[in-house]
Amino acid sequence: MAFEYIPPVFAQPGMVQQPPTLAAPGSEPGPLQIREMQEQDVDFIARMLVEAFSDKFEHAVGKSRMEGAVKQTAGMMGRSRHVWHRYRIALYEGRQAGAMAIRFHGDNAEEDFQCGEACSYLGCCGTCGLTCLGLGTTESSIRLGECYVDHIGVDASFRGRGVGKMLLERADFDARQRGCTRMFLWVKQTNRAVHLYERQGYVVVETVNGSCFLRCAMGSGDFYKMQKQL
Ligand SMILES: CC(C)(COP(=O)(O)OP(=O)(O)OC[C@H]1O[C@@H](n2cnc3c(N)ncnc32)[C@H](O)[C@@H]1OP(=O)(O)O)[C@@H](O)C(=O)NCCC(=O)NCCS
């Protein structure tokens, strides 16, 4: 019987030794599962995102229109099947617990936003606010070999149980499967999630301070771009 010689890999200075990942995080038996988005996730994603990013939505549409923002987001997501492939849904003991959207180079499709629908739920001011929020959060320069974590949110009742960590691990896995070598995301400087990203290997590579446009669009002008080499 012939054996193939596999040379040992020695650690180099600065090299992070990663254990080989055999299965996609969230695909093995356990309380936490991760799957692709399905029709039944539309309402969950809409409500969870508006609640998880309530500071941005409140700034954009006003506190009294948050329920309208949920309905508008659900309507838009329901029509936007062409972007569902970006979403990964985390289930905790079978219940929808969190969601994440990741994007790769060339995936610039936009959600099916309808102004008339937005106006009916949010009024003209709320619709303008939401449009600005969309402009402020859109990332249009994802290079070849990069994976962009567009947004990640976990329902408040499931936070602190490792759901966010596993979603990020799944993002890394899916990105590697696509041949990517780098992950990146944007996060508000004061967001506690910065610690989670650091633990997952992300580092700050760019700092935006006091951007007037971002403050008007999102209520904060201070953001970090964080990046991770795979
Ligand atoms: C960030 C978030 C996705 C993490 O999900 P999670 O399942 O709670 O994460 P894990 O259990 O794997 O890890 C816990 C870490 O998440 C972060 N976290 C926990 N609650 C958080 C909250 N309310 N807001 C922001 N980050 C939070 C912290 O870094 C925490 O670590 P710490 O306790 O040492 O500070 C989730 O808290 C959330 O949806 N937050 C609101 C939306 C948001 O800020 N998304 C990130 C935008 S870039």
Q: Regarding CATH, which class?
A: Alpha Beta
Which cofactor or ligand species appear? coenzyme A
Order of the strands making up the biggest sheet: 1-2-3-4-5-7-6
- The number of helices is 7
Percent helix, as a range, is: 25-40%
Q: CATH superfamily, please?
A: Gcn5-related N-acetyltransferase (GNAT)
CATH level-two architecture: 3-Layer(aba) Sandwich
Report on the structure:
By secondary structure, this protein is of the alpha+beta class. It has one domain: Aminopeptidase (3-Layer(aba) Sandwich), CATH 3.40.630.30. It has seven helices and seven strands. A seven-stranded mixed beta sheet has the order 1-2-3-4-5-7-6. Helix 1 crosses helix 2, helix 1 crosses helix 3 and helix 2 packs across helix 4. The longest helix is centred in the middle third of the chain and has 23 residues. It starts with 31 loop residues before the first strand and ends with a strand. The relative contact order is 0.15. The N terminus is likely disordered. Bound molecules: coenzyme A. Coenzyme A (COA) binds next to strand 4, helix 5 and helix 6. The site of coenzyme A has 18 residues, from strand 4, helix 5 and helix 6. InterPro entries: Acyl_CoA_acyltransferase, GNAT_dom, YpeA/RimI_acetyltransf.
Notable traits:
230 residues, alpha+beta, Aminopeptidase, 7 strands, 37% helix, binds coenzyme A, GNAT_dom
Lay out the secondary structure:
Blueprint: E1 32-36, H1 42-52, H2 54-61, H3 66-79, E2 87-92, E3 95-104, H4 115-137, E4 146-154, H5 163-177, E5 182-188, H6 193-199, E6 203-208, H7 212-218, E7 223-229
Parallel strand pairs: 4-5
Antiparallel strand pairs: 1-2, 2-3, 3-4, 5-7, 6-7
Helix pairs in contact: 1-2, 1-3, 2-4, 3-4, 4-7
Bound molecules: coenzyme A.
InterPro entries: Acyl_CoA_acyltransferase, GNAT_dom, YpeA/RimI_acetyltransf
GO molecular function: acyltransferase activity, transferring groups other than amino-acyl groups
Pfam families: Acetyltransf_1
